[in-house]
Every structure is written in structure tokens, then in C-alpha cells.
Design goal:
The complex is a heterodimer of chains A (154) and B (223). Chain A has 154 residues and is an all-alpha fold. Chain A is 75% helix and 0% strand. Chain A has 2 domains: 1-83, Rna Polymerase Sigma Factor, Chain: A; 94-154, Arc Repressor Mutant, subunit A (Orthogonal Bundle), CATH 1.10.10.10. Chain A has helices at 5-16, 19-35, 46-80, 87-92, 95-101, 105-116, 121-128, 132-150. Chain A is globular and about 45 Å long. The two termini of chain A are 34 Å apart. In chain B, helix 1 (5-12) packs across helix 3. Chain B is built from 9 helices and 4 strands. Chain B is 54% helix and 13% strand. Chain B has 2 domains: 5-57, no CATH class; 100-219, no CATH class. Chain B has helices at 5-12, 18-30, 32-57, 62-93, 98-105, 117-125, 179-182, 193-203, 211-219, and strands at residues 137-144, 150-156, 159-165, 170-177. In chain B, a hairpin with a 5-residue loop joins strand 1 and strand 2. Chain B has a 4-stranded antiparallel sheet. Chain B is rod-shaped and about 105 Å long. With 223 residues, chain B is of the alpha+beta class. Classes of the chains: A mainly alpha (154), B alpha+beta (223). At the A-B interface, helix 1, helix 2, helix 6 and helix 8 of A face helix 1, helix 3 and helix 4 of B.
Chain lengths: 154, 223
């Protein structure tokens, strides 16, 4: 599991859109994997198992965040008026980071799993839990959106 | 022949089977627009790969590695402990020691490394100076260890070793097979009386208790 950590971190950083959030996600994944390690079937791929776990934790976290923001959104919106918060931070981000952030989660994870992590379509589809054809079309839509944002000069 | 964007991506990623791959390759060779899409796909892949590559080389933060290292250490300890258990109990299975099996049944061993039953009672009450010559378990000597706890080395037919008194009871520090197990055809690795005494000497903070000190310790319940 230790040997997988760098790759788990990489996927987490892409998924969470931010390296610090990515490490939080990675830590949560490690803890859950340790708790559930009896459920891992020896002979199957540990990396896919953990990536799946990470993705599920991320989705749960997203849902929880949405619930929180629905509760507090009015207050936060009121405070943020005219503050222009986060602009400087956005400038620091690379074009690739910004382009990735605009993708819907399902497209971003497809792009990350195939184009960064190097999984086959079949493996990526299993991690995500969708048919291979669906994974293929999400990948293409995500890729096209990225290329449109990044222009020809990639 | 039409090639879908999905197929083109799959081709660029090496996902098509050989037959379809060859057809798409022919189409790409004939159409610069398709070729440009393939190039764009691969360029994006390379750019994303390069973008995320530094994370792989960044030192891992301790909060990620520590839980794993801790857990791996526990697993190794657990495996070692299990091996020790198997080694300790394996002599029971040796057919030549069937006689020893009968002894093992009432061998006063606590379930969790503490003396129980007759052994606990012996450790609580029996004094070196006053014990009968034919006592089933003889106390060899009593002493205090570095932490100040009372410890007693004992030897019996079934079991010999050292036990130290703590809040829970007599914790077995060194355990060995008793004299019965050592006279069989197979002499099992265990602590003989000489080995027990040697170990006691290493553990003791001072000389062994004399008869008076031992009696006083018993009065205080060895605490």
C-alpha cells in the first residue's frame, strides 16, 4: 500500500482539484482501506480497489459539501459580495488546473484514470462502475472540453 | 467508412482490437483531420502526464505514511506472535509426548499470559523456605525486578518459568516446558531450571529475597 501512495496522491489531487484537499482525500482513503482490508480479495488489483474507494469517498464528500452549502449559501453569498475572493489564488493555478476544474466530475475522473493513471478503458470503467462505452464517451467529452479550453497550443 | 470520435480516442489509446485498429489506421492515414485529432489526443495525454508527474516525486507527508507503517509493524508483530504460539504449543501434538498431554490438561496457564489455577495459588502462598520437598511446583527463588515488582522463579513437572506480580495477577514472563516434557525422547526447547535461574539473575534488581523478606512480601500480597 505504501508503494501505491504516490499514485493515490496524484489521483486524489486531480479528483479534489487541489493538492491539499487531495492529501485529505488520500488520508481518508488510506484509513478506510486499512479498516476494510479484510474485504480486499488477494489476487485482485489493490490499486484499482483503492482508487474505487477513493472515488466513492470523494463523491460522498461532495454530496456532504453540497448539503452544507445549501444550508449556508445565503450567509456566505452575503459576505462575499464585492470581496472578489480567490482571484489571486486562481491566477496561481496553471491553465491545466483551471481547465480540469471546469469539467464535470464524471468526465474529469475518466480523463484522469485513462490519460494520467494509464488505466485501460475496461479497468477505468470498473473503478467508476459504469459500462466501457459510457467511460469512452465521458473521456471523449472531457477531452474535447479540455482541448477547447487549452486551445491548440497544448 | 466512418470513424466515431470515441473510436478515434480508443484507437489513440490502443484500445481497439487488431482488425478495427487496422481499419482506423487506414482512415487516419487518408484524412489529415483525423490525424490532427489523434495528435491532439496524444498531446493532451502527454501534457496531463507532465502536469501531474511532480506529485509522484514529492516526498510523502507523514500523515499519509505513518498509519501504514504503524499498521505494517502491527501485522509483522502479530505474525511473529502467532509463530511463537505455534512453536510453543507444537510439542503437545508430538505423539511421543502423549504422557505430557495429560499434564497439559491441568497445566495452570492463564489464557492471556497470566498464571491461573494451582500455579497462581502456589505463587501466592508457597515460600521457598517452607515448601514441602515433594511440592508439585517448587519455587526456586523470589526477587524484585528493575521496576520493583515481585517476581518468582518456579519449576514443576508440567511447567517452569518466571512470573511477576502486577495489578492483574502473576504475569508469566518466561515460560518453559516442565520436567516431564524434558525427559521424553524429544527434548523440546524450553526453559530448564538452570535457564530459569539464569534469566532470573538477569532480571533481578538485587539479590534474591531471604526467608524473612519473602514472608513479608507474602503478607503484603506481593505488591
Amino acid at each position: 500500500m505504501l508503494a501505491l501512495l504516490p499514485r493515490l496522491r496524484r489521483f486524489a489531487a486531480g479528483l479534489a482539484r487541489d493538492p491539499a484537499d487531495g492529501d485529505d482525500l488520500c488520508q481518508a482513503t488510506v484509513m478506510r482501506a486499512l479498516d476494510k482490508r479484510a474485504q480486499w480479495l488477494p489476487g485482485t488489483r489493490l490499486d484499482s480497489w483503492m482508487m474505487t474507494m477513493m472515488r466513492n469517498i470523494w463523491i460522498d464528500e461532495q454530496r456532504a459539501r453540497i448539503r452544507r452549502s445549501e444550508t449556508f449559501v445565503a450567509e456566505e453569498a452575503g459576505m462575499a459580495v464585492g470581496a472578489g475572493g480567490g482571484q489571486e489564488e486562481a491566477v496561481e493555478l496553471s491553465v491545466i488546473d483551471r481547465a480540469l476544474r471546469t469539467l464535470p466530475d464524471e468526465q474529469r475522473e475518466a480523463v484522469l484514470l485513462v490519460m494520467v493513471e494509464g488505466y485501460s478503458y475496461k479497468e477505468a470503467a470498473e473503478i467508476v462502475g459504469c459500462p466501457v462505452g459510457t467511460l469512452n464517451s465521458r473521456l471523449v467529452r472531457g477531452r474535447d472540453a479540455l482541448m477547447a479550453r487549452l486551445g491548440e497550443g497544448v | 467508412m466512418t470513424v466515431t470520435r470515441e473510436e478515434l480516442a480508443a484507437y489513440a489509446d490502443g484500445e481497439l482490437d487488431a482488425a478495427r485498429g487496422a481499419e482506423v489506421a487506414a482512415a487516419v492515414a487518408a484524412d489529415p483531420a483525423l490525424k490532427a485529432q489523434i495528435d491532439g489526443h496524444r498531446a493532451l495525454k502527454a501534457a496531463l502526464g507532465a502536469h501531474f508527474a511532480p506529485i509522484l516525486d514529492t516526498p510523502l507527508p507523514e500523515r499519509l505514511t505513518a498509519p501504514l507503517q504503524r499498521r505494517e509493524a502491527e501485522i509483522i508483530d502479530f505474525a511473529a506472535a502467532r509463530n511463537r504460539r505455534i512453536a510453543r504449543w507444537s510439542w503437545i501434538a508430538a505423539p511421543a509426548l502423549a504422557a505430557a498431554l495429560a499434564l497439559a490438561v491441568f497445566m495452570p496457564r492463564g489464557g492471556d499470559g497470566y498464571a491461573s489455577g494451582g500455579l497462581a495459588e502456589t505463587l501466592d502462598t508457597q515460600l521457598v523456605a517452607a515448601q514441602p520437598a515433594d511440592a508439585p511446583t517448587r519455587i526456586l527463588l523470589s526477587f524484585r525486578d528493575q521496576a520493583g515488582s515481585y517476581c518468582r522463579a518456579f519449576a514443576g513437572e508440567a511447567q517452569s518459568g518466571i512470573a511477576c506480580r502486577d495489578a492483574e495477577g502473576w504475569r508469566l514472563v518466561t515460560e518453559g516446558d516442565g520436567a516431564a516434557a524434558q525427559t521424553g525422547e524429544y527434548r523440546m526447547a524450553g526453559a530448564s531450571a538452570a535457564e530459569v535461574l539464569e534469566r532470573a539473575q538477569a532480571m533481578a534488581a538485587g539479590p534474591a529475597l531471604d526467608a524473612e523478606q519473602e514472608r513479608a512480601a507474602r503478607t503484603r500480597d506481593w505488591r
